[in-house]
Amino acid sequence: MVLQVIRFFNKVFTRRVSSHTRSIIFRQLFDDVSSTYTYLLGCPITRECLLIDPVVEHSKRDFKLTKDLRLQLKFAINTHMHADHITGTGYLKALSGCKSVISKASGAQADILIDESDIIQFGDHILKVFSTPGHTNGCCTYYLPEQEIAFTGDALLIRGCGRTDFQEGNPRTLYRSVHDKIFTLPKNTILYPAHDYHGMMCTSVDEEKRLNPRLTKSEDEFVEIMNNLNLGYPKQIDKALPANKVCGVFDIPKDEPLDEV
Amino acid sequence: MVLQVIRFFNKVFTRRVSSHTRSIIFRQLFDDVSSTYTYLLGCPITRECLLIDPVVEHSKRDFKLTKDLRLQLKFAINTHMHADHITGTGYLKALSGCKSVISKASGAQADILIDESDIIQFGDHILKVFSTPGHTNGCCTYYLPEQEIAFTGDALLIRGCGRTDFQEGNPRTLYRSVHDKIFTLPKNTILYPAHDYHGMMCTSVDEEKRLNPRLTKSEDEFVEIMNNLNLGYPKQIDKALPANKVCGVFDIPKDEPLDEV
User: Fold this and answer.
1) Rounded to whole angstroms, how far apart are CA atoms B99 and A238?
2) SS3 B173
């Protein structure tokens, strides 16, 4: 009897683990012009999926991938109103009929406006919304609790963080968002940022709490650092912000026929 | 009693699943000059790790990451003798004292020469070696059975494959390697290639069996396609091949002091 239980246990455990490793469909994608990461999350049972931070130039690539993986795009989501590239959410709406999503605090238009503690459901899975302002007022971190992974946008980058010197940037607010929200997630949580410029793709809560050169400092020291970065004016901001303000209702470009996808 | 069993079961299952998601440390890294992916695999228990296909220019970045993650680099491994970049294995040996590894059939020097069916152990984990020639004679695919993921080098790329028009390239051999070895892995196996040029980071056996524009063709059609690609001469080949032939014994560059790491 004991042996039978163990055998049954092992059998179920083995099957569940094997199944668990693919209990979610996950892909990271890259735009090498703005060094932006886009994320695809899909439910292998219902085939519903969502994209986080798509880039307009890659809308067809990203939509094609959803089709290749036999997924149906339910949501195209932004972590915030980006200043360095035009979001693909508007184009993806036209391609797929998905709903666009962004935080209410971003000031941008979209089909669904979200806020702290909201839940985004796709198939059998959920993303929890954490409001993590500081880079912009509307920055959100999306947390996938079952896998202990989080998408931090520009709030927390790998050994870095988003700028606080334009839009509604505020270093003190950003420091509190990272320390009070992101750093309170389980320490093994894998963090996927909106950007990286050094060929790195993810980090973890544990690493950033130990090694982030800015956010391991005191709040006052962090504010001092952020207020003295003296960075150049963002190249794409004048084009990106007006477009991203209407990201959720942006029409498909006239010269980009759907049938090319 | 039944309820107790279910509770116990759930408890154990939840714990094992939670533990399973971090049963291995895994990082994908990128070199944007040669579009090469490097992979870090580590054992969270013993802290031993290995790197697959490191690029010399990123040796310090990659070694620093092993230190940041509190890992000890045991092996620096190549999937094959690359023609498009200089491997970082020699430099990493000097930085870390790790052993260099490449296939015997590659013709390159290294501390450990491997062959079909060999096992590479790091901590509580193993990589199985599959010989997958065709791009070069010494191409290997490394398979991590516990996670059902494989590192295919240049044998199979995302919706593509490595060239067969230089070194010991042979399209018929490559076709057989992919169909007889890689395509016989479980269909949900996630495949990590040595390169991608479109911002994609991985694929799966299922996808490539359905969607690879070359390898879904018949063997004869594949040979015809590969023999008529008319690609340019690889830019780095004259520099990369002589260096990579001695990758495992390559000295640390004199102008790159260790203490900068």
Assistant:
1) 51
2) helix
Whether residue B260 lies inside any domain: the answer is no
Could you tell me the CATH number of the domain that includes residue B224? 3.60.15.10
The identity of residue A108, as a single letter, is A
Mean of per-residue pLDDT scores for chain B: 89
Give per-residue pLDDT as tens, B99-136. Answer: 999 999 999 999 999 999 999 999 999 999 999 999 99
Please tell me whether the interface predicted TM-score (ipTM) of this complex is above 0.85: yes
Pick the residue of A12, A59, A85, A200 with the most B CBs within 10 A to test the interface with B by mutation: A200
B7 inside domain: no
Q: Average of pLDDT values for B233-239? A: 88
Grouping H, G, I as helix, E, B as strand and the rest as coil, residue B71 is: coil
The two beta strands, A149-153 and A140-144, are antiparallel
Residue contact B200–A69, C-beta within 8 A: no
Show which residues on chain B lie within 8 Å of chain A, measured between beta carbons: 9, 12-13, 16-18, 20-22, 27-32, 58, 61, 65, 68-69, 147-148, 188, 198-202, 207, 211
Long-range contacts of A32-38 (CB under 8 A, 24+ apart): A32/B32, A32/B199, A33/A57, A33/A85, A34/A84, A34/A85, A34/A195, A34/A236, A35/A195, A35/A196, A35/A197, A36/A82, A36/A84, A36/A85, A36/A194, A36/A195, A37/A192, A37/A193, A37/A194, A37/A195, A37/A196, A37/A201, A38/A62, A38/A88
Partner-chain contact A148 B69, CB within 8 Å: no
Structural domain range at position A211: 24-234
Q: Judge residue A228's burial from the number of C-beta atoms within 10 Å of its C-beta, 0-12 exposed, 13-18 middle, 19 or more buried.
A: exposed
pLDDT at B256 over 60: no
CA distance B141 to B73: 20
B256/B97 Cα distance (integer angstroms): 16
Closest CA in chain B for residue A192: B27
Torsion of CA B253, B256, B257, B261, to 10 degrees: -120
Closest-CA distance, B141 to chain A, in angstroms, reads 20
Indicate whether B224 belongs to any domain: yes
Nearest to A36 by CA among A148, A133, A154: A154
Number of separate domains in chain B:
1
Helix axes A219-226, A171-180, angle to 10 degrees: 130
Q: Is residue A10 part of a domain?
A: no
Mark B66-103 as b/e (b = at least 16 C-beta within 10 Å): beebebbbbbbbbbbbbbbbbbbbbbbbbbbebbbbbb
From B185's Cα to the closest Cα of chain A, the distance in A is 14
